[in-house]
Design goal:
By secondary structure, the protein is an alpha/beta fold. Strands 2-3-4-1-5-6-7 form a 7-stranded mixed β-sheet, with helices on both faces. Strands 8-9-10 form a 3-stranded antiparallel β-sheet, with no helix packed on it. Helix content is 39%, strand content 15%. Helix 11 packs parallel to helix 14 and helix 11 crosses helix 15.
Amino acid sequence: MVLTSLADSTARRVEALGSSLSEALFEPSLRLGVTGLARAGKTVFITSLVANLMNRGRMLQLSAAREGRIETAFLQPQPDDTVPRFDYENHLAALTGPEPNWPDSTRAVSELRLSLKVRPTGLLSGLQGPRVLHLDIVDYPGEWLLDLSLLDKSYEDWSAEVLARIDARSQAQGFMAAISSCDGDAPHDEPLAQAVAAAFTEYLKAAREAGFYDCTPGRFLLPGDLAGSPVLTFAPVRAGQAKAPRGSLRREMARRYEAYKTQVVRPFFRDHFSRIDRQVVLVDALGAIHSGPPAVEDLRQSMADILGAFRPGRNRFLTRVLGGKRVERILFAATKADHLHHEQHPQLTSIIEALTRDAQDRARFAGAETAALALASIRATTEEMRRHEGRDLPCVRGTLLDSGKQAAFYPGALPQDPGKLLVPARQGVERWLEGDYQTMRFAPATLDLKPGDGPPHIRLDRAAEFLIGDRL
């Protein structure tokens, strides 16, 4: 088994070396990872980005598009034959059809290759022909990314950490009741193990719905073909003796936890995550603010955990050739900016900057470039001013997702100083002291696109300029 593992590892390295040499010397490729936690809008972001790179009329902040140097962009078969293709065509049809609707959320890893033919710049540009850049977009759930933090934790440490964190949460009452009478050092009983794991899964679902982000293990929420398998049938239990007795429930839970890391988390890191060049992390900051201070603090900690999973730094030529890739640019983007009037966009940008400050500082120290901005991948609203109690309120108008009716909406004024949100959240305050912040769920607007225009957006072109502009 050891020899087989070594041979497999050697074969992977040789294959990666050949691929890296080919890309570095001939037609370069850039792997862009797109992730975000639940309801952050990953599918919509990728669909709109590809559509606007193929029809660039709305991409004026992307220098190569503004200068007319992108001659064409077209979809090609992806390089990874074992990874599902991102369903771009059906997602675009859902967003731009006569009765538009939001596409299904990300539930597994998928990939799409967009090839761009670009005219070079510089003094010798007239003597050179156009070159090709392959943009490989990798879509994966943010919940899986948070699982990477489990690699450095033992089952005992993870259990103690989780139980201490969720003990006071109302969503965990059912699970805490299930393990209160559970003796982890008693002999293993499979029906009991399944019942405890099911209760833990229900807690994770309820916590995610309540706006919490520390919902690991992520595959419990998106199990796919692993549903019901022992590798997803474990949960944190309280320790009795210092060391779990042989044959005990806790010993079996620890074994399954280690199997989860070995058979689920490590392959994801090896096959997908470790090959990323650039990364965008989408954040539903408005949803967290609406959920309250605990959700905001949980989001801040999750952003730090996500950055901890990356290997930030610069990719030199030999680094790329030898397969030691690092994430050299990371964009943190607060989505759904169209749910706010543009007057409040600077406040939303300041909030996402503050939420990710620790993560960005660490990435910059390692040599990576980072940025934060507020965007809307597809604009679903229009703006208007409404008179209310003697003052004008900056509102947005759109079609409500639940009722299909048109409505004008004012979510509340975000503070100029993001500390007014982050400090109470760190202090454990349960509710905002200066009023609540509301959110609405808008349906996508019916679009009438002109030839050459992609779907309307807010700052998607600025995001593209940061992520790939230097390679165009």
